[in-house]
Write a structure and sequence with these properties.
Layout lengths: L9 E4 L4 E2 L2 E3 L4 H13 L3 E5 L5 H12 L3 E4 L5 E4 L12 E2 L4 H11 L5 E5 L10 H9 L3 E5 L2 E7 L7 E3 L5 H11 L5 E5 L7 H8 L4 E4 L2 E5 L8 E3 L4 H12 L5 E8 L6 H8 L3 E10 L2 E9 L8 E3 L2 H5 L4 H7 L7 E3 L12 H11 L4 E4 L2 E4 L9 E3 L4 H10 L7 E4 L11 H8 E2 L1
Parallel strand pairs: 3-16, 4-15, 7-8, 11-12, 19-20, 23-24
Antiparallel strand pairs: 1-24, 2-25, 4-6, 5-6, 8-10, 9-10, 12-14, 13-14, 16-18, 17-18, 20-22, 21-22
Helix pairs in contact: 1-2, 1-3, 1-6, 2-3, 3-5, 4-5, 7-12, 10-12
């Protein structure tokens, strides 16, 4: 084994010569969050197999538990959540959302209509992320939500809510979810519209738990006063986690990798389209539907003569916002480079991902042009090993572990422990499929 850990903070990645085998990825983070929160509100017991192992969805579970739900992890790894039947109780202490913006924003929607006062807090990174985008529509529904300089802590005084017709100024699946979760408990029918369609896991999850959601090309609407019932579900493999292994496969002509039971949700599949645009060949070995979510086993083959380039902008940038760092990290190895625009949202994630991607690529010897809303990374470059600063950001740590596979010499990932936020098994699985 060439990949060794020097400490809990530094991981050394040695070059590889190919990628092969198969991976079973942990449960999709986005779906796990939504199932956890709705299960806490629902009546009865929800049983979730392959729940995400990342720290963030467990923040959602723990918050649900603090609000009165019962959470049990069985010996076989199943997560059982016995819900509160629609009525949360206000804990006497703040609800800790950890590093999870998903937990904080979506939970705000659930709590806005509940009786009592609630305070949502998070770690230093989460406390810097913008929350005004959630406060504005919820307050328009009659909620009383107070922020600290537009950030957490988020103070919520539960109120009876009224339905609204709201168009999101910036497309955001988390804001959409907060509004729909609040609308579930509001008087009347709440309508949410968006200029760019975002991932639809919330609509599908609400329907799985028994709510009626009307969906259109530009949004969704939900009637208030509906009740939820627990479900039995298997969470499909996380496509955002798969992104790292898809990109790793593309690096090495002749490589291929099988992904078992992967989420194939059409609102997330744009990543697969980008991989094929770069020259990858995707085979779908089987396809199924579980609670409205498409699940498949797929095989990615690397392009025979190396990767082409890509220009990512507009709606596509919004659809694959979480996958952009790893695409940028492999861009030097493409023939024509990768340009990313309309992605200013990357600057207000767990870190300023545009700045960190640019500085780390430069540390590895790449030429990079940085814009306010993206990057241009030239193709035909060879990277060398370097010391990488993950900046406490899980996606940066993992993206540069992938870039390091084709670099000359070893690469040190400083802050590698941050990968556990979304993907604790990442380095173990990478070792298993990297051929050295």
């Amino acid at each position: 084994m060439h990949d060794v850990s020097l400490s809990s903070q530094i991981r050394v990645i040695a070059p590889a010569r190919g990628i092969g085998g198969s991976v079973q990825l942990p449960g999709d983070k986005s779906i796990s969050h939504r199932y956890a929160l709705l299960a806490a509100l629902a009546s009865g017991t929800t049983r979730l197999t392959n729940f995400s192992t990342g720290a963030d969805p467990w923040s959602s579970l723990r918050c649900g538990e603090a609000l009165g739900a019962t959470v049990v992890k069985t010996d076989d790894g199943t997560v059982e959540v016995t819900g509160t039947g629609g009525l949360f109780h206000a804990p006497g202490t703040p609800l800790d959302c950890g590093n999870s913006g998903s937990t904080m924003r979506m939970l705000a929607g659930l709590l806005a209509a509940q009786s009592g006062t609630f305070t949502l807090v998070g770690d230093a990174s989460l406390s810097r992320r913008p929350m005004e985008r959630v406060r504005k529509p919820l307050n328009a529904m009659g909620a009383e939500i107070t922020l600290t300089d537009s950030h957490a802590p988020v103070a919520i005084a539960g109120r009876p809510l009224r339905a609204i017709d709201y168009t999101t100024p910036v497309p955001s699946a988390q804001v959409k979810t907060a509004v729909l979760f609040a609308g579930l408990q509001a008087a009347g029918t709440t309508k949410l519209r968006e200029s760019i369609r975002t991932r639809d896991h919330s609509e599908l999850a609400l329907q799985a738990f028994g709510a009626e959601v009307d969906r259109t090309l530009d949004g969704a609407s939900i009637r208030g006063g509906q009740s939820l019932s627990g479900i039995d579900a298997t969470v499909p493999g996380d496509l955002s986690s798969a992104a790292f292994f898809l990109c790793a496969t593309l690096l090495f002509p002749g490589s291929s990798l099988i992904f078992d039971q992967l989420s194939m949700n059409p609102t997330r599949a744009a990543l697969l389209d980008v991989c094929t645009a770069l020259g990858g060949r995707l085979g779908v070995l089987n396809l199924d539907e579980q609670h409205g979510e498409l699940v498949g086993t797929v095989q990615m083959h690397a392009p025979e003569y190396g990767m082409r380039g890509a220009k990512i902008a507009g709606a596509l940038s919004a659809q694959i916002i979480d996958e952009l760092p790893v695409l940028a990290a492999i861009a030097p190895y493409t023939r024509d480079g990768i340009t990313i625009r309309d992605a200013s949202e990357l600057r207000v994630k767990e870190s300023d991902r545009i700045a960190l991607v640019a500085s780390n690529l430069r540390a590895m010897g790449a030429t990079v042009e940085e814009f306010e809303d993206g990057l241009a990374v030239a193709g035909g470059q060879q990277l060398h090993g370097a010391q990488i600063d993950a900046g406490g950001d899980h996606r940066i740590a993992m993206a540069f572990a992938i870039a390091a596979l084709r670099a000359s010499g070893d690469t040190e990932i400083h802050g590698a422990e941050s990968a556990a936020i979304s993907f604790p098994e990442f380095f173990t699985l990478l070792d298993a499929v990297a051929q050295r």
